[in-house]
Automatic annotation (TrEMBL):
Signal peptide: none annotated. The lineage of its organism: Bacteria, Bacillati, Bacillota, Bacilli, Bacillales. It comes from Fictibacillus enclensis. This is Transcriptional regulator. It holds the Pfam family CdAMP_rec.
């Protein structure tokens, strides 16, 4: 068994949740915050049998797309003014960042 942990953009989270339910996969959605942008994103925990991992990856790919996002300039207050970038910078936020972990034990009571 594997635990798939997928960090996706909030804009894609409902579509992905619906697709997982439609294909009878069970998932838990967590409201999370990206460490770099400090903006909300959504993390899915999806427990599946080993042979189902590829199908879940396909569903994630089909429902999550990458987008460009502007990062607002951060005030140099007390920091190094040489490193201060006074204009917004665009970064590409991926459709999904996915980790696949082995599960040692799975029990439900
Ligand atoms: P954030 O940390 O808010 O990062 C958003 C996007 O900013 C990233 O998109 C990347 O394009 C850029 N970025 C992140 N750190 C950067 C840095 N040190 N310098 C320059 N640009 C940087 P993604 O790579 O697609 O990541 C989207 C979200 O997935 C991340 O949001 C974070 O919540 C999660 N994530 C990505 N890699 C991770 C990892 N190795 N471990 C845990 N979470 C991760």
């Amino acid at each position: 068994m594997k635990m798939i942990i997928a960090v996706v953009q909030d804009k894609d989270s409902n579509r992905l949740a619906d697709a997982l339910v439609k294909h009878e996969f069970r998932a838990t959605k967590l409201a999370t915050t990206g460490g770099f942008l400090k903006a909300g994103n959504t993390t899915f925990m999806i427990g599946v049998e080993d042979q189902q991992v590829d199908r879940v990856m396909e569903i994630i790919k089909e429902n999550c797309k990458s987008r460009n996002q502007l990062v607002a300039p951060v005030s140099p207050m007390g920091g190094n003014a040489d490193a201060y970038v006074p204009y917004p910078v665009e970064v590409e936020v991926g459709g999904a960042t996915v980790f696949v972990l082995p599960i040692e034990s799975f029990q439900q009571f």
